[in-house]
Amino acid sequence: MTVKRKIAGSTLVALTSLLMACGNAETDGTAASSSQKNSTEQTISLMAVQEIGSMNSLLSQDSDGFTAQSQVFEGLYRLDKEDNVVPALAVDMPDISEDGLTYTIKMREDSKWSNGTKVTAHDFVYAWKKLADPDTAANYAFLLDGTILNGSEITLGKKPVDELGVKAVDDYTLEIKLQNPTTYFLSLLAFNPFYPQNEEYVESEGDAYASTSDHMIYNGPFTMTDWSNAGSSWTLVKNKDYWDAENVKADEIDFQVIKETGTALNLYDAGELDQAVISGEYVNQRKNDPEYLSTPNAYVSYFRMNQLRNGSDTIFANENVRKAVGYAVDKEALVNNVLQDGSVATYGFVPHGFVKNPETGEDFREEAGDFLVTDKDQALSYWKEAQKEIGETIKIELLTSDGEADKKVAEYLQSQLQDTLPGLNLTIRAVPLQNSIQLTRNSDYDLAFGRWGPDYQDPMTFLANHLSGGNANYSNPEYDALLEEASTDLANEPEARWEALIKAETILIEEDAGIVPVYQQSTTVLQKNNLKGIVQHNFGSPYDYKGAYKE
User: Fold this and answer.
1) Could you count the other beta carbons within 10 Å of the beta carbon of residue 297?
2) CB 426 within 8 A of CB 417
3) What is the DSSP secondary structure assignment for residue 461, as one 8-state letter?
4) What is the pLDDT of residues 214-253, one digit of tens each?
5) What is the pLDDT of residue 6?
6) Which among 270, 269, 325, 285 is positioned nearest to 447, based on CA atoms?
7) Nearest in space to 543 (alpha carbons), one of 302, 223, 303, 297
8) Cβ(157)–Cβ(134) under 8 Å?
């Protein structure tokens, strides 16, 4: 079994607001208390736009949490500033068997947790078995589906966790057996759900583990202080016991959650922030500022249309309704007149600049082409057919998060859809991010607008979100079969696999209007000229502050 079931947790990041600013990349076991922090000229002040959902790497669900976790925890590999996978706790790249199914990884022996305990291969075996265990309800357990041997069956409760294809050969050697050859597996090993956890510490903490910064131990570039679950501020402190501490430049990085752009700008202009995220009219006001930066990323914002709610078909079970919505929105006007932050309209789910054809080097988005290009006449035609089938007046609730930019986008979409589709009554439900994540995960919505950022460097990280059984209740056997084939029979045939993935995206969007991609995001900020070394990643954890510093 590989990717035959829909990802239970895959909508979680989809509704997240991107954490913070773009990078100027060259581009006993508790954390230190506030009184122990080393306040020097290397203190950096940053903002987040949402609270952290969880600091437990097995329960990751939003980009704010991903970013915070990746500063204080570390896995076998990291991403460098060009998004190449490079060794971290691993000594070198893995030894891979000829059939591509067995990875043997030697670990460094000088890494330890902040309570002084050595980080060993057993910490990875423990964490990954918990990831697979259905009782954990890990949001990203689906990443084991078709990758690590027996991962699919274990997450479904069909096999015991001890049969997961991972073992500690010795304290510093990890052996991983895969279900199928997986070209993107190395990039998975740099992603948060594959971080280690220390069994003795986690079990001793019980339910308190990762509930506050005082109930965690750390093995990354920083430790964390002054954070509690859903807290609006936290601090990263340089981990002097980190194996590569000499390359961690900042002594302290202070974060505060700021949801209103005006507030962020006031703090930035007063010198209390080194970075401020801006959008909308603030972009035009400040775009000529020498401290203005706009950086594209691989996050795609899109409509999710739930076809089944509380056991009954929604209006989005009607293909004409989905296609009417798909063709109705002027995406170019949205990015140019509302967002104004460098984001670009998109007509596919796999973003520009993310992955290239393994044979020709052509960008996936260019080769796959454009789908659901704005056409209001066509939208109206589909809408009239829908009205014949389900009635003249149609009510829809649009779910979004309550961030300032998200609410403005929702209001624009409301106006566009109601103006183009007569008889539509669309209401907006703006709720805190974690609430919107949970509602979407439970299929408790009609229409949701959110984002998806890639976990690993492969089109599957987008397309597998919409396998049958998911929380948008989209289902197409041909689509499922193409993704299954791409994960199994075509795993060692790169060009044929590429064509299968393009065909799958065509079915999902052009033929079925299963989702409606709207725009590919850019992050626009004001950033002090003396702030350097923040790295922005195109997949996995969005930001890396290991090398961040102030001149």
Assistant:
1) 24
2) yes
3) H
4) 999 999 999 999 999 878 999 999 999 999 999 999 999 9
5) 38
6) 325
7) 297
8) yes
Kindly report the length of the chain: 551
- pLDDT category of residue 397 using cuts at 50, 70 and 90: very high
- pLDDT at residue 121 greater than cutoff 50: yes
Structure tokens at 76: 């076998």
CB 236 within 8 A of CB 258: no
Identify the burial level of 376 via C-beta atoms within 10 angstroms of its C-beta, where 0-12 means exposed, 13-18 middle and 19 or more buried.
middle
Q: Where on the phi/psi map is residue 99: left (φ > 0), alpha (ψ -120 to 50), or beta?
A: alpha
Torsion of Cα atoms, 179 then 181 then 184 then 189, to 10°? 50
Tell which residue, 216, 190, 221, has the closest CA to residue 111. Answer: 221
Three-state SS for 109? coil
- Decide: 316 and 484 in contact? Cβ < 8 Å: no
Written as six digits, the tokens of 376 are 């209001």
Question: In this predicted structure, what is the pLDDT of residue 62?
Answer: 82
List, as one string, the DSSP characters of 116-157: SPBP-HHHHHHHHHHHH-GGG--TTGGGGTTSBTTHHHHHTT
- What confidence score (pLDDT) does residue 41 get? 60
* Higher-scoring residue by pLDDT: 492, 12: 492
Residue 441 pLDDT greater than 70, yes or no: yes
Contacts of 19 (CB under 8 A, 6+ apart): 48, 49, 50, 63, 64, 66, 67, 542, 543
Judged on CB neighbours under 10 Å (0-12, 13-18, 19+), 135 is exposed
Query: What is the sign of the dihedral through the CA atoms of 453, 456, 457 and 458?
Result: negative
CB within 8 Å of 145: residues ≥ 6 apart: 1, 2, 3, 5, 7, 151, 152, 155
Q: What pTM value is reported for the model?
A: 0.85
Amino acid at 96: I
Name beta bridge partners: 271: none
Burial class for 289, CB neighbours closer than 10 Å (0-12, 13-18, 19+):
exposed
CA distance 540 to 537: 7
